[in-house]
Each structure stands twice: as C-alpha cells, then as structure tokens.
Design goal:
With about 260 residues, the chain is of the alpha+beta class. The protein has one domain (about 1-15, about 40-245). It contains 5 helices and 10 strands. Strand 5 and strand 6 form a beta hairpin. The longest helix has 30 residues, at about 1-30. It starts with a helix and ends with a helix.
Length: about 260
C-alpha cells in the first residue's frame, strides 16, 4: 500500500509540474515592469547544490541544483505557513538574538522541504554569533515533520523520523552547519550500527544578489516540484537496484 501511494505521488507531481509553467509564465507577464524593492527585503537568496551519496548496500550518488531563501523572521510580518515564528524559535533554542529560516518557499501552493533550518543567534554586547540550529525534517510522501535543536558546530542525534523507505530507523544523524554568509554549507551523515557511515547529504550554496532577482516568486518557481521529482526519481532507481523497501513503522503497528 505504501509503495502504491509513492507511485501515485510520483504521477501527480509529474503532471502538476508540466502544467504549472504555463501559469507562472502568465504571472511573470503580469508582473513585468513593476519596480523591485529587493534592498528592503528581509529575504536573502541562496543558490547551490544538494549532493547525496549512499555507500551500502549498493553505491548510489547524485546531485541537483537548488534554490533557498534565508528569511529574517524578526523582519517578516508572519513566518511562512507551517513554520515557527522568531519568538517560538528563541524559546525552543533558548537564545536571545535574531532568527533566520533557511527554507524552500512554497510555489503555486505546493511545498516540498526535506530540510529547513532555523539559525538562532545569541547577542553578546554589540556582537552576535550562531549558537543553535533548529533542524526541521519532513519526509516524503508521508509529509510528517520533526524539529530538534542541535549545536551547529557538530551534533549527534538519534534518528527521529522514517525519512526514506530505503532506510531503517537505526543509527544517528551527524549534523554540521556554518553561519551563513556569502557561502553556506550543511552536512548530515548517517551513523548506522551495522553499516557504519554509509550515507551523507550535503547542501553547499552561495548568496545571490537580490538586485539580480526582481521577483522572489519567479526565482523559486516550481522549485518544490523539482525537488519532489528528484526524490521520486532516485527512489525508483534504488528500487530498481533491489535496495530493500522498508515499510513505515506506522504500517507495522497497523499490522499487529
């Protein structure tokens, strides 16, 4: 049943991604000529690459281009839908400074965010430093979400979510993230009791000048749909390579 749900999600995302460019083209024509106020925006833009490598039980690696927003939550009227506010983050992380959200914004009502990261700063006099990160992980296609606090320099957390049907729930996540500036890097590796350090995912991105992009919505157009297509495509490749399909723990509970 879970495999059927996965296939239906793949088909739905594929046909939606074919139709939406027409809508976005029309939207861009309507907005053409409007003045840009990028310098006043609380959003910084990052462009980069996500890289995945699995070493066992078969080798499988891929990378794809990605676009991210880095949002100053203290300067926005409200946080993006289904995300924490600046004050909620400060309480959760026990920090006292500004909070920035690294995420892929919705595009045409659709969101696909395997990873969002809240950067929580502490103020010490006139200086600020990145003290904690709140990691927000969402799985596909179940759309379940977990959030947890980590030390950005390096932290180890017990795996809290069934992220992929081709990975079991054993092991820990090793997480590292730098304070975003002109460049940013986020690394998550899996430490498994039997397979060792068999999987790593990395995001490397550079800041894009907001003056180059006059319309944030167009900059991120269909980005969530593209991420979904990449996830499903490589899930099919793993299935084709005979990697074991592992049912969601929720499914096990229903069968008991």
């Amino acid at each position: 049943m879970e495999l059927l749900y996965l296939v239906c999600s793949i088909v739905s995302t594929f046909f939606t991604s074919l139709a939406l460019p027409l809508f976005l083209t029309f939207q861009a024509l309507l907005r053409r000529g409007r003045p840009s106020r990028a310098s006043d925006s609380p959003i910084s833009l990052y462009q980069g690459t996500v890289w995945h490598e699995r070493r066992l039980p078969v080798h499988h690696a891929f990378n794809y281009s990605v676009l991210y927003a880095f949002i100053d939550l203290d300067r926005t009227l409200q946080p993006p839908p289904d995300h924490l506010s600046a004050d909620e983050n400060r309480r959760f992380a026990e920090t006292n400074g500004p909070v920035f959200l690294l995420t892929i914004p919705r595009s045409v009502g659709y969101e696909q965010n395997p990873l969002s990261l809240y950067n929580c700063y502490d103020l010490e006099g006139s200086t600020q430093h990145l003290k904690k990160c709140i990691v927000e992980v969402t799985n596909t296609p179940s759309d379940e979400r977990v959030s947890f606090v980590v030390n950005p320099n390096s932290d180890l957390v017990a795996k809290p979510l069934h992220v992929s049907p081709f990975m079991d729930m054993l092991g820990n996540w090793r997480i590292r993230a730098n304070a975003p500036g002109e460049n940013m890097i986020v690394t998550i590796s899996v430490q498994h009791p039997e397979l060792g350090d068999y999987f790593v995912a990395t995001l490397k991105a550079k800041r894009v000048s907001s003056s180059v992009v006059s319309d944030h919505a167009m900059f991120f157009s269909l980005m969530p749909h593209k991420v979904a297509v990449w996830i499903y495509w490589h899930a099919l490749k793993l299935w084709w390579k005979n990697v074991t399909f592992i049912q969601h723990p929720r499914s096990w509970a229903l069968m008991v």
